[in-house]
Amino acid sequence: MIHGILNLTGAALFASSLILRKKKFRKQGLVLSALGYGIMMAAAHLGGKMVYEYRVGVDRTSGQILPEEFCAVMPEKGLEDSKPTRAEYHGTPIVLVRKGEQIFALAETCSHFSGPLSEGKLIGDTIVCPYHDSRFALNDGRVINGPAVHPQPCLEARIKDGQIQVRKPRLSSSLVFDR
Ligand code: FES
Question: Which pTM was predicted?
Fold first, then answer.
């Protein structure tokens, strides 16, 4: 909000400066444009801080390590039906959801602001983040409702030897069931 207000103030100062200069009040116009530059510099500084320090608008799942090949992440018995459950692959949290015969797997860290999707709620074939209510499709991780703008990385899942295994999708992100 502060970033937006600073930008609007800067724009208003430049517009006022232009009007004053047109009316031949050159000195006053210069003062207003100098103020505008100052305000815009503060806005730019804050914008950079938001992105680089607080990572606002940055995909929070970028750089996460996900398995290239099928890899066991939890015993099949540990996954209840319709209950988002957290598993892990080399420190990367993964949310697993069983829906009858189907198992879905997504990166657990919400792409918006790192909310834990395993604590979110299911609505049909979607999961809602507990922090700001972004909603993602379970089958491909696409954003159904924001504020998130980046999709959730989606994994292929299968059950083998009593274990749930996941890997990065090859052709499609849909379920592979292989008992
Ligand atoms: S952290 Fe998930 S919607 Fe904001």
Answer: 0.68
CATH number at residue 150: 2.102.10.10
Mark whether 121 and 153 lie in a shared domain: yes
Sequence-distant (≥ 6) Cβ neighbours of residue 57 within 8 angstroms: 50, 51, 149
- Per-residue pLDDT tens digits for 114-156: 899 999 999 999 999 999 999 999 999 999 998 988 899 999 9
Q: Do 21 and 105 fall into the same domain?
A: no
pLDDT tens-digit readout, 80-98: 999 999 999 888 899 999 9
Which of 129, 144, 145, 149 gets mutated to test ligand 1 (max ligand atoms within 8 A of its CB)? 129
Task: State whether 35 and 77 are in the same domain.
Answer: no
152 Cα to the center of ligand 1, angstroms: 11
Q: Which residues line ligand 1 (CB under 6 A)?
A: 110, 112-115, 129, 131-132, 134, 147-148
E-assigned strand segments in 84-141: 85-89, 92-99, 102-107, 121-123, 126-128, 135-137
pLDDT score for 54: 80
User: Do the domain assignments include residue 112?
Assistant: yes
Number of domains in the chain: 2
Dist. CA 54 → ligand 1 center (Å): 14
**18 and 88 fall within a common domain:** no
